[in-house]
Amino acid sequence: MSASQLSVLGLSVLSIGLQLWLGRAAERIAGVAFFVAMTVTPLVDHLQIGGLRWGVGLLALGLFGTLSWLSLVAERWWLTAAAGVQLLSIATYLVALLNPDVQVWASVSFRIVVWTELMLIGLFGVWEARAAPYAQPVPGRSFQLTLPRL
Hints:
Elements: H1 3-22, H2 25-44, H3 54-73, H4 77-98, H5 104-131
């Protein structure tokens, strides 16, 4: 492994670990989603149609869906930012689908940058869950997610 790969791995372990350890319900769910995306990606990386890695793309879409759902039901700004950043990753799969001549490594490199941003945002999320007054637990409620009213 190169130094940059080890750095991204270290940041990922730190961010996900802190989300699971110090985060509240929303951060823990997001931490599990990040962990699943990180560990399952190598298992589905070989699923390709041409240059489109559709297995990894479905994982990215699932992560986007999870982050989007959490941003709607939990009062956390970091989840909205993370969902937006993950949407950028989804866009690279659409570009590859619409234009097969796009350089694969440019898309992969961009996704690595997006993943790094997600891990940094996740660290902010742990801080937000602990420091923001709106993120503090309500007495008598063990699960702090609320469904939006329509």
